[in-house]
């Protein structure tokens, strides 16, 4: 049985962690450095850092904040936002990232995933797919969920994995911040299509949603959440204790 990972996500805008609903209505939460250190010390298995407006604003990711976060966490760190070239991969990795997440950059240049995988290895390249239902179809969105690309999501994800993406984060725009549970239908479709680790993102409202995720989709690798962790509604140690009680394998915290 695969050990399930619990992953907090830091959505960073203007150097601060923010959170919204359905990718809109962002509100300030905390410092990414302090929050990252807290999660590293309190049982998170990995940490995701997204500079959520870098692509939409057409700029490079804030490397000064990233470097500070990387220096204070002792768990794997995945970083995304404004990743448009091999040079961006190189810059972010040199700042301390373990893996690099690409979304809009891969949509603009589909060869980017393959180029990065050949240079840094599949395990370093994470495809982050922002997906929303449009007219009954799973559709890929770009620029932080702002732009409908018109591309069908499952075929897009399959293509990127075939090109070398070693992991997929499925961000359901429909369930983001709503706190009514993960998008199990969307996740099941992705799991059926690819054979690399898949991370569920969007919709966690409490411990029961993680239990349901891992019980109903036993091949899912990880659950990612933001607000329920940021606002102390659920702590990672208590979440892992409850998962263990349901015979879901997790890395135990001290």
Describe the fold and architecture.
- There is one protein chain.
- By secondary structure, the chain is of the alpha/beta class.
- It has one domain: TIM Barrel, CATH 3.20.20.
- The chain is built from ten helices and twelve strands.
- Strands 1-4-5-6-7-10-11-12 form an eight-stranded parallel barrel, surrounded by six helices.
- α3 links the parallel β5 and β6.
- α1 packs parallel to α2.
Chain-averaged pLDDT: 90
Number of strands: 12
Helix content: 25-40%
Terminal-residue CA separation: 22 Å
Order of helices and strands: EEEHEHEHEHHEEEHEHEHEHH
**Tally the helices: what do you get?**
10
What summary fits the major beta sheet? 8 strands, parallel, barrel
Identify low-pLDDT runs: none
Rg of Cα set: 16 Å
Number of domains: 1
- What structural class should be given to the helix and strand makeup? alpha/beta
CATH architectural label: Alpha-Beta Barrel
CATH class: Alpha Beta
Named CATH topology:
TIM Barrel
Proportion of beta-strand residues: 25-35%
Give the full name of the CATH homologous superfamily.
Aldolase class I
Estimate the global geometry from the Cα principal axes.
globular
Strand line-up in the sheet with most strands: 1-4-5-6-7-10-11-12
């Amino acid at each position: 049985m695969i050990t399930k990972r619990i992953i907090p996500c830091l959505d960073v805008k203007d150097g601060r962690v923010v959170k919204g609903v359905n990718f809109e209505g962002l509100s300030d939460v905390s410092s990414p450095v302090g929050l990252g250190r807290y999660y590293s010390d309190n049982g998170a298995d990995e940490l995701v850092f997204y500079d959520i407006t870098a692509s939409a604003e057409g700029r490079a990711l804030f490397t000064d904040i990233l470097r500070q976060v990387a220096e204070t966490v002792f768990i794997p760190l995945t970083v995304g936002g404004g990743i448009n070239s091999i040079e961006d991969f190189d810059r972010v990795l040199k700042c301390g990232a373990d893996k690099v997440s690409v979304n809009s950059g891969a949509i603009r240049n589909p060869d980017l995933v393959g180029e990065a995988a050949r240079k840094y290895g599949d395990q370093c390249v994470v495809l982050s797919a922002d997906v929303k239902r449009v007219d009954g179809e799973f559709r890929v969105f770009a620029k932080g969920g702002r732009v409908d690309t018109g591309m069908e999501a499952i075929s897009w994800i399959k293509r990127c994995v075939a090109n070398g993406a070693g992991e997929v984060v499925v961000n359901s725009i429909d369930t983001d911040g709503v706190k009514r549970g993960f998008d199990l239908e969307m996740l099941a479709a992705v799991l059926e299509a690819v054979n690399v680790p898949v991370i569920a993102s969007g919709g966690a409202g409490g411990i029961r949603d993680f239990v349901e995720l891992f019980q109903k989709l036993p091949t899912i690798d990880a659950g990612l959440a933001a607000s329920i962790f940021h606002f102390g509604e659920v702590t990672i140690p208590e979440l892992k204790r409850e998962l263990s009680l349901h015979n879901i394998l997790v890395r135990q915290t001290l």
